[in-house]
């Protein structure tokens, strides 16, 4: 095998092994978000934006 083929094979193997180990944990994500100050139960939404087209006053 050539040098490029070996590197390609190693990259493929690394991708296969990294995908098996990186399963997202939902609870871990929620804990990280709560550490930043956000709460799942107390969602602060932005104020309502009027949808009417307001004509500028001259």
Question: What's this model, at a glance?
Answer:
This protein has 58 residues and is an all-alpha fold. 50% of the residues lie in helices and 0% in strands. The chain contains 2 helices and no strands.
Question: What does this molecule look like?
Answer:
This protein is mostly helical. Helices cover 50% and strands 0% of the residues. The mean pLDDT is 78.
Model regions low in confidence, pLDDT < 50 over at least 5 residues: none
The fraction of residues in strands falls at under 5%
Specify the number of helices: 2
Estimate percent helicity: 40-55%
Layout of strands and helices, then pairs:
Blueprint: H1 3-21, H2 26-35
Please tag this protein with its features:
58 residues; mainly alpha; 2 helices; 0% strand
């Amino acid at each position: 095998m050539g040098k490029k083929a070996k590197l390609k094979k190693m990259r493929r193997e690394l991708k296969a092994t990294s995908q098996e180990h990186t399963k997202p944990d939902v609870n871990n994500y929620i804990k990280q978000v709560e550490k930043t100050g956000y709460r799942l139960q107390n969602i602060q939404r932005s104020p309502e934006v009027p949808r009417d087209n307001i004509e500028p006053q001259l």
